[in-house]
Amino acid sequence: MRFLRFLSVITLLACGLPTAHALHWDIVYRFCPRDIIEIPEIPIPVGCEVVDCCPGCPGPGYIDWRIFVDKTILQSATMRLQGLDQKSLGQLKISGAGKLNEKGEIIMGAGETVVSGLPEMFNGAVPVAYFKTQMIKDIQATAAEETDTGSGLEVRQFRGRFQVNSFRYRYIKFPCPPVLKLDRIVLNNNTSTDSAIVLMDNRTTACNNDQIVRTTGTAFLGNIKSKGACRSTVAVFSDDNAMSYQNNVNTWTDNAGDTHTVNLQPVITVPVSVWATTNALLTAAQNDFANANLLYNQNNTGIQFNPTYTNVTGNNTAINTIGTGCPTAATVGNLQGSAWYTGNRLNIYYVNSAFTGVNCGADRNMNFIGTIANLGSLPHEIGHAYGLRPSGNWGHVNGVAGFGNNNIMWGGGPGTRNWFTVAQTFRLNTDTTSMLNVNGDRTGPTETCLPDVSSAACPVLTLDATPH
Amino acid sequence: MKHSMKSSGAVLRLCLLVFAGLLFTACDNKKTPTVNYQEIEAARTAMVNWLECEECTEGELKAVLVHSKRLQPMFMSTLKKGVAPASTELYRLELEKRYDELVAYSEKHPRSKPTLPKEKFVQLYLDKLTAQYQSRAAKALAAIGGEESKRALQEALQTTRAEDVKMTIKQALEEAK
C-alpha cells in the first residue's frame, strides 16, 4: 500500500498538474520589511473543499499534500498536525524539502514538500495542520518587487491526480521609506496609540505619490520641500480615530526642520436603521453589526456603526412594504415614503429570503441582507454603499492582481474575510459617492475615485501596509 | 541465498516495469484522453465560485452551466449533504477565533459585543453556510434541468428542515427545465 502511494506521488509530480484552481483561502499581505510582524499560525484542514471532492474524483481514500515554501520570502515552515496519533504520523510519506522531527512536526525548508497518506477523518474528526512560517533573515525589498509575485506558502491537496482543495498565503514586499530625521509629522490624540498609517503626496527632488510611513506619534521624514507644482496631501488612518485627510498641505518649506501636526479626531459614529422581519434575523443583524464594527475599526476606516433595530416580525404591512429585495427606480418611492425607512442614513433590511446581500442601485442608502448571508456580507454591502462600486470596476476584487479572497470586497469567498486595503479605506471615506459623505456623516475634502482608477489623487486600489 | 537474490532482483525489475507502464499510461493523455484534469479543476472552481458568490452578478451560474454534465452529480450531493467536512471545520475554527476577538474588542467597544454565547454564534453561521450551499445547489440543478435534477430536488424537499432552503427548492422545482 505504501509503495503504491509512493508511486502515485511520483506520478503526480512527474505528469504535471492543472494550473487554474479554486482556493479556499487566498490571502495577500503587503508590507515594508521594517514593519513586519509575527505571522500568526495558519490552520489548514485535511480534505476536500466540496462534498464528493470533484467531478469524477475517486472514492474515499487518502489525501496527498503538495506544499510550496517560497525561498524569496520564507526560509522554512513548520507543520503541526492536530488530530492524528503518533502511529498515523509515522505512516505518512514525506518527500522533498520536509522531514518529520521527534516532536511529530514536519519541518520544511524552502522548496517543495509532498506529504502523502493523510486521512480525511480520524477518530471522527477532521485533522487540521497548523503552519508556522519563518521569514528569511535580513529581508529587504526593492521597488521592482512591489508586484504580486503570487508566492509565500501554498498547500494544494490531491486525491490521486485530482486537485480537491488549495490554500495560498502571499507576501508582497515594498521598499520601506528611508528613516531621515529632517522633517516630521506629529500625530495628536492618537486614541489607541496604534501604529497609524500615514499616506502622503509631496515633493522632494520630484513629486512623490502615495508614500507610506507608520507612527504612533512622530514620523521622521526626509526633507519634504514646498509643494511647487506637486500635490501636497497627508492622510492618516488609525484605530479609534476618524481618517484625517488634508489635501492642500502648506507646512513644508525647502528647509529641513519642518513639523506638520495632525490633530486626529474621534471616530465617526454613523447612525444606521436596521429593520428585521423575523426574530432570528434580528439576532443575525446584531451579531453581523458586532463583526462589522470590529472589521471597520481593525482596518482603520475611522467609521463605527450605531444601529437602531426595529423588529417588524408579524407586521405584515411592514414586511410587504419592505419586500424581499431591492425596489426598482419606479417603486423605490414606496419604501422611501413608508414608516420603514429613515432618510439620510443607511437602512439595512434583514429579510426572509435565501440570498446573501445587496446594496440597492435605486437608493444607495438601502441594503438588503438575506437568510444565507455570511459574516462578511454586511461589511461587504456597506463597502458598496460607501463608494466601492460598481462591481465591474473593482467594486469586486475577484481576480484583480494583488488581491486575495480575504478582502471584504471579494464577491464571495470565506465568510470570515476581514481586510480592506488602505486605498479602499481611502475611498470609503473620501469618495464623492460614498454615502458617508452624501449623508453628511463626514465633512471634509472629497475626491472622485472609482475603484479601478489610479491617479495623482486616487491611490491604486492595492496600495496597502500590514499590519492594520 | 543466490536464488533469493535473483528472485528479489526479478521482483524489482517487474515493479520498475509496472511503474514505467503506469507513468506512461498516466501521462499519455493524448492516446487515452479520458481524463482532462484541467477541465475537471475548471469545473470544480466554477462550482465553488457559484456556491460562495456574494451577489452573484458576474456570470457565476453561467460558468457552472458550461460544465453541467460534470457538475450535476456534485450539486445533487451538495443539496443532500451541504458543506464538506474540511470546509466546515475550517469555518468553525475561524468563527471561534472571531468570536474571541469580538469579546476582547467589546471590552472597550461595547457595540461589538456578540449577543449569543460562543457555541450558538458559531452554529448560527455554520447553519447559514449549509443553507447557502444547499440553496445554491438547488438553483444550479434548476438551471441544469433534467429528470435527475428534478428527482433530487423533490427528495430534498421531503428531507430539508430549513424553511429558507425549502422555499428555494420549491422555487427551483417550478423553474427546472
**What's the CATH architecture of the largest domain in chain A?**
Sandwich
The average pLDDT score of chain B comes to 88
Low-confidence spans of chain B: 1-6
Radius of gyration of chain A: 25 Å
Quaternary state of the chains: heterodimer
Question: What would the average pLDDT of chain A be, to the nearest integer?
Answer: 92
Put simply, the count of helices of chain A is 8
Largest interface: A-B, 77 and 72 residues
Work out the count of structural domains of chain B: 1
What is the CATH topology descriptor of the largest domain in chain A?
Immunoglobulin-like
Q: Ranges of chain A with pLDDT <50 over ≥5 residues?
A: 4-18
User: What structural class do helix, strand and pairing data of chain A support?
Assistant: alpha+beta
Notes on the structure:
Chain A has 468 residues and is of the alpha+beta class. Chain A folds into three domains: 2-173, Immunoglobulin-like (Sandwich), CATH 2.60.40; 183-263, Immunoglobulin-like (Sandwich), CATH 2.60.40; 268-438, Collagenase (Catalytic Domain) (3-Layer(aba) Sandwich). In chain A, 16% of the residues lie in helices and 31% in strands. Chain A contains eight helices and 21 strands. Chain A has helices at residues 2-14, 86-91, 279-298, 316-322, 332-336, 377-385, 422-430, 435-438; strands spanning 25-31, 42-45, 63-69, 74-82, 93-100, 105-118, 128-135, 152-159, 162-173, 183-188, 196-203, 207-215, 218-221, 233-237, 244-246, 259-263, 268-276, 303-311, 346-350, 357-359, 366-369. In chain A, the strands form four sheets. In chain A, strands 1, 2, 3, 4, 5, 6, 7, 8 and 9 form a nine-stranded mixed beta sheet that branches. A five-stranded mixed beta sheet of chain A has the order 18-17-19-21-20, covered by helices on one side. Chain A has a four-stranded antiparallel beta sheet with strand order 12-11-14-15, covered by helices on one side. In chain A, strand 20 (357-359) and strand 21 (366-369) form a beta hairpin. Chain B is mostly helical. Chain B has one domain. Chain B has helices spanning 2-27, 37-52, 60-65, 68-81, 85-106, 118-144, 147-159, 163-175. In chain B, helix 4 packs antiparallel against helix 6. Chain B is extended. Chains A and B meet through helix 1, strand 2, strand 9, helix 3 and strand 18 of A and helix 1, helix 2, helix 4, helix 5 and helix 6 of B.
